[in-house]
Amino acid sequence: MTVETEKEFQIIQKEQNQFNQQLYIMKKITLFILALFPVLTYAQTSVLQDKSGETSILINDKKSILVNAGDASTSANLSFNKPTWFIGTNLKFKSTEGVSNLLDGYKLKPEFEFGIFGGHTIHSSKPSVIQFMYYGLKFNTTNFNLLKKDSSNTFDEKTFYGGSISVGYNRIGSVNILQSGGPASSYLFGISADYSRINNLEDLKSVQTYSSFTKDTGNTKTVLLSNKKSGFSGDYSSFGALRANLDAYLYPQILGGQIGIGGYIRSRITGTDPRTNAGVGFVVGQSGAPTYVIFGLLYQFNDVFNQLKEENDFIKRGGINIVAGYSF
Amino acid sequence: MATKNYHVKLEGKAQLHEPVIKLEDISVNIWSVDGGATWENKNVTVDVTGTLEVFMSCKAMSGTDWEFTIEDKDADKKIYDEEGTTGEKLDSRNGERIPNYSERTKSI
Questions:
Q1: Does ipTM surpass 0.95 in this model?
Q2: What's this model's pTM, rounded to 2 decimal places?
């Protein structure tokens, strides 16, 4: 190894050490936040959600830990409830490019969401019916890298500010599916609409860049990677969109009333690239608390009506999502 | 007639909806700060003549467990502790089963 190469190697090693130190601190902070949220808060939105973490069902959990394979985020709600109305706030934090990139040595690009919500009971003459309306305002900020369109292979650092205004309706009722004299099965139904300022990051390609250096010791050659960065590539845009969500699950008594079978529909009606996604599957509720989902397995069909014309095979546009949580 | 102080608490294993607690046929002001699972009022003052008349009802998806307790604060003693599950058979309604619903009536 020449003297110049040795110096270059030392500089890269120094940069690598500094980077590792920064990464270590960032990981500690991230893990601290991830660990602290479930402990600090008393309520968290339901595990009944899609791959993006969206749901129209506002059933609160108590202290809980939640894992969504499609939406690596942590969230927390705080609410005040009276028998006929409620108000609350919620906070959500995630790594814009997912946890896997973070653990693989790439820098954290955070996404924060803050929301306020409120609602009221709609009284039904049937004691078996629970129904309420809710309203919400959300603000979110996303920090991300966008690959420059020139040939420099470098990123522009960008920040997106978004938000939404929403209205929703939830209902828990019962239906005797077998028309027998046995106990009726419960169902959970939710529908919501929102007008949001969103972006198209989920449609862009995820890309990574790094500097490489080969250390040649004579017998072996080692490739060193430094300055790892991840981001998105493509035509980025932000826009307003009207969206609609629908969730429905039936908990058959024949299965003990603890397992919900159903799914969801997520539709972007206006804005750039309108599309409808749908999911079907089942969720398993906690013993003595069927609305506290401890495990869910759902298959999501993306762009059901092929509005984007990106993949003609219906099955190939889908994917499995797993959610798991525990309330205590 | 005696003026008594009570601590009433209705705790669900999951979120309970539209809970109603009445002592001596008077609705008790209750609230929740944990997302609707635990409803309580730690300081209820009631004029009681003879026995204390209790009524409780709540709604949640069938199969949701709950526990309802009343503590006599003057005697520092739990005078009522009842567990149930929404959608169960109701003694107060001749064994009728109402999905997603529970209720209790009791004279103590």
A1: no
A2: 0.81
